[in-house]
Specification:
Elements lengths: L15 E9 L3 E5 L3 E5 L2 E9 L3 H9 L8 H6 L3 E9 L5 H9 L22 E4 L4 H10 L9 E2 L2 H6 L3 E2 L4
Antiparallel strand pairs: 1-4, 1-5, 2-3, 4-6, 7-8
Length: 171
C-alpha cells in the first residue's frame, strides 16, 4: 500500500513562462522547419515560451545550441547566441499575454509569421529588435512581473503564497 505524497508548498514552482533573448551577429537566411526559409537581420530576438511541466529543464534545453530540432526556436537557436533568460514561475497559462506585452514595446517587429505560435492565434512568439534597442528591452523585461501580464491580474496574500493569481475580469 503506497502513500500519497502531497506537494511541498515551499518548493519553488517549476512551471511557467520564459523569455529567451538571442543575438544574431550576422544577417542570414535560415530554414525554420516546415515554416520555410526566412531572412533574419542582425539584431536581438525575444522568444516567448511556456513549460507547464519542467520549466528548469526546458530552459536548460534552450541553453544548448546543438540538439535535435523539435520546435521553431531550435532552428534559430543554432545560429544565435543566448544573451539572457527571464523566467516567470506561474501555474497560469499566460504565454500569449506575455508575448503581446512584448510585442507592444517600442521597436518590436514580427519577421516570421507563426514562429512559435502554431498552436495559438498570435502573430508569432518571436519578436525582433534592432541592436540599439537591447539595453532598453533588457531593462523592460527585468521590470516585468507576472502580475502585470494580462488584464487586471491581482495577487491576494493567500494567492501569492500559493503563487496563484485571482483574475477579477476587469477590462
Amino acid at each position: 500500500m503506497g502513500h500519497r505524497l502531497s506537494k511541498d508548498k515551499t518548493a519553488p514552482l517549476n512551471q511557467g513562462l520564459y523569455n529567451l533573448i538571442l543575438f544574431l551577429k550576422k544577417p542570414k537566411t535560415i530554414r525554420i522547419g516546415d515554416l520555410g526559409e526566412f531572412f533574419f537581420p542582425r539584431g536581438f530576438y525575444v522568444y516567448t515560451g511556456s513549460a507547464m511541466r519542467g520549466l528548469t529543464r526546458r530552459v536548460a534545453r534552450h541553453q544548448r545550441r546543438h540538439k535535435p530540432k523539435r520546435w521553431h526556436i531550435d532552428y534559430l537557436r543554432a545560429h544565435c547566441s543566448l544573451v539572457e533568460v527571464k523566467t516567470y514561475p506561474t501555474r497560469r497559462r499566460l504565454e500569449c499575454q506575455l508575448n503581446s506585452h512584448i510585442l507592444r514595446l517600442k521597436g518590436a517587429q514580427v519577421l516570421v509569421p507563426k514562429f512559435g505560435s502554431s498552436d495559438c492565434h498570435c502573430k508569432a512568439h518571436l519578436i525582433w529588435f534592432a541592436e540599439g534597442d537591447y539595453q532598453r528591452i533588457k531593462e523592460e523585461l527585468l521590470e516585468l512581473r507576472i502580475e502585470t501580464i494580462g488584464s487586471c491580474l491581482l495577487y491576494t496574500s493567500d494567492a501569492a503564497d500559493e503563487l496563484d493569481g485571482v483574475d477579477l475580469g476587469g477590462r
